[in-house]
């Protein structure tokens, strides 16, 4: 991400912990910070990933209401991690949620998909703005969803974002940067007439609290307010990582919607996207050595020139 806001990133022990986790991960490292429900970029009406049908083989539906979790014994295989922008975009298409991953009643919003060449960055004055992808990001995509108004209640807005970084450490920097943004900006401006307020954040490494599905998990709660949609309404954002992949979801309530009815809309989508990522780039930690990393010769670790091109 654009790390202007992360220049004093180790100002808290939590941020340093996230970066240390990224440095020691077994991946290939040496948000959008999560759409925030939010800057609605230029989009397409239909998903390039086919509403995750392209990743149907990695569907994580359990057939009941239980939420699947990524295995704690699974790391990422550097040989399977994307090395080019094309590979990263293909992975995003297999991982990102469609309406079905959120559950019944959730529909595509208009616009549906973000411009994949840009992402949202928190700038001066705590205002979100769109910028070109930085060099450390191979691909990103945000999808927008809604639960239509009904039964005397207003509509609910949701989003899902998947970002693929070049390295595990780059993904850890995004996590740390998001924590700092929450500390610096308890009120954030999404676009003219729309803002988030009273934001509070949490961060958990794998095994802490209820995080049984990702390397690191971040959460943010607060209120969303709109000049046209009203408010304040309950707001929630969650973000988690698996190797170089960062996935996130957000939800902004509507008139008559309580916080406890919003959580079920997003609590399953995030871990299901992580399971999809695990299927694509994961390896069991106890399964022996990983596949040879791209650009190396088996058994030697020696560089093989020209086998791992850039984006």
Q: Helix segment count?
A: 6
Alpha-carbon distance between the termini?
Answer: 16 Å
Count up the domains: 1
Helix share bin: 10-25%
Computed CA radius of gyration, to the nearest angstrom: 19 Å
Given as residue ranges, the uncertain stretches (5+ residues, pLDDT < 50) are 1-73, 288-311
Strand order of the largest sheet: 2-5-6-11-10-9-8-7
Could you give a short account of the major beta sheet? 8 strands, antiparallel
Which structural class do you get from the secondary structure elements?
A: alpha+beta
Residue share in β-strands = 25-35%
Helices and strands, in order, run as: HEHHEEEEEHEEEEEHHE
* Average pLDDT, all residues: 74
Number of strands: 12
| Bulk shape | globular
Q: In terms of quaternary structure, what is this?
A: single chain
Keywords:
alpha+beta, disordered N terminus, about 300 residues, globular, 6 helices
List the helices and strands and how they pair.
Layout: H1 13-24, E1 74-76, H2 85-95, H3 99-102, E2 107-113, E3 118-122, E4 128-132, E5 137-147, E6 156-165, H4 168-184, E7 188-191, E8 194-205, E9 216-226, E10 230-242, E11 245-252, H5 259-266, H6 269-281, E12 282-284
Antiparallel strand pairs: 1-12, 2-5, 3-4, 5-6, 6-11, 7-8, 8-9, 9-10, 10-11
Helix pairs in contact: 1-4
């Amino acid at each position: 991400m654009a790390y202007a806001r992360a220049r004093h990133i180790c100002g808290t022990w939590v941020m340093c912990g996230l970066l240390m986790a990224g440095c020691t991960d077994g991946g290939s490292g040496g948000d959008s910070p999560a759409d925030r429900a939010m800057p609605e970029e230029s989009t397409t009406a239909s998903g390039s990933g086919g509403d995750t049908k392209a990743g149907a083989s990695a569907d994580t539906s359990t057939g009941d209401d239980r939420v699947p979790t990524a295995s704690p014994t699974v790391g990422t295989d550097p040989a399977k991690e994307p090395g080019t922008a094309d590979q990263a975009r293909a992975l995003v298409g297999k991982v990102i949620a469609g309406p079905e991953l959120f559950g019944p009643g959730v529909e595509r919003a208009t616009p549906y998909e973000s411009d994949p060449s840009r992402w949202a960055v928190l700038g001066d004055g705590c205002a979100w703005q769109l910028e070109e992808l930085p060099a450390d990001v191979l691909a990103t995509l945000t999808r927008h969803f809604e639960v239509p108004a009904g039964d005397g209640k207003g509509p609910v807005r949701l989003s899902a974002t998947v970002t693929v970084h070049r390295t595990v450490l780059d993904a850890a920097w995004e996590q740390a940067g998001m924590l700092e943004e929450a500390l610096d900006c308890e009120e954030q401006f999404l676009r003219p007439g729309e803002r988030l307020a009273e934001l509070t954040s949490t961060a958990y490494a794998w095994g802490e609290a209820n995080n049984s599905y990702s390397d690191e998990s971040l959460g943010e709660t607060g209120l969303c307010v709109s000049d046209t949609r009203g408010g304040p309404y309950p707001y929630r954002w969650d973000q988690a990582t698996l190797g170089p992949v960062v996935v996130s979801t957000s939800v902004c309530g509507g008139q008559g919607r309580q916080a406890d009815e919003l959580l079920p809309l997003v609590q399953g989508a995030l871990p299901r996207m992580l399971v999809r990522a695990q299927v694509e780039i994961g390896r069991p930690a106890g399964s022996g050595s990983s596949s040879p990393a791209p650009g190396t010769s088996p058994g030697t670790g020696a560089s093989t020139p020209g086998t791992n091109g850039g984006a």
